[in-house]
Amino acid sequence: MNLNNTVALITGGKRIGAVVARELAARGVDVALSYARSKTEADEAADTVRAAGRRAATFAADLSQPAAAGVLVKSVVDALGRLDILINMASVYVKKPFADLTAADWDANINVDLRAAFLCAHAAAPHMRAQGGGRIVNFSDWVARSGRPRYTGYVPYYVAKSGIIALTEALALELAADHILVNAIAPGPIVAPPGTTDAERKAVEEATPLGRWGGEMEIAKGVLALLDSDFITGETIRIDGGRHVK
Predict the structure, then answer these.
(1) Which residues are catalytic?
(2) What is 123-173 written as a DSSP string?
(3) What is the DSSP pairing of strand 56-60 with strand 85-88?
(4) Helix or strand (DSSP H, E) at 89
(5) CA-based R_g, the chain, Å
(6) Which strand (E) or helix (H) includes residue 88?
(7) Helix axis angle, 68-80 to 116-130, nearest 10°
(8) How many CB atoms within 10 Å of residue 28?
(9) CA distance from start to end of the chain
(10) Which of 62, 82, 101, 240 is deepest in the core (most CB within 10 A)?
(11) Residue-range domain boundaries for the chain
(12) What confidence tens digit (pLDDT) does each residue in 83-134 have?
């Protein structure tokens, strides 16, 4: 895919999303970013895009609400004129013991981590179809991609991220005739979550064959590779430093 003068929507504009936005802009992409609470980070990411000479826009969107996806996609097209690339990064990641889980906890994960990806894709596909094709990149997790849970306390998260793999495969089949390629990335130890202790960081490094955290740029490289390909669709690619083989 020739990225120059295309338009991408990234749901989630902080940390990894900000680096992906920067790298897309460096390759000629105009970038829209949505955020739920991280307005400052999304605005900073947009400024980085503009500094690269590309257009940028930010939108507040509560993707836990079913109507928000359609409104968001329409706002992006109205502001930037088209939509070629959708990167579904919005996610809820909260640890909670199974015995304490409620239906609201379940919905909070599933609605954002899985349903929002479906709804954003559903809203974006007609715009991509009208211009002859596009790319959708979803985000799963290395644990889900490995086919078995490894940590307790993440039941709805694991189920949602496993669902993303199935969604990616199903959408790849549904949208192939429209030249819309759909893939997913399953990150492993990329960036330590806030509050991670030195001991926890070291434990992750020791459990990862490459012996380190990957860093945001490794995800950006993966996204760019999937966007560049014209013949990869329906795949979920682990970027985990070999974590799944140890």
Answers:
(1) 157
(2) HHHHHHHHTT-EEEEEE--HHHHTTS--STT-HHHHHHHHHHHHHHHHHHH
(3) unpaired
(4) none
(5) 17
(6) strand 85-88
(7) 40
(8) 14
(9) 35
(10) 240
(11) 7-239
(12) 999 999 999 999 999 999 999 999 999 999 999 999 999 999 999 999 999 9
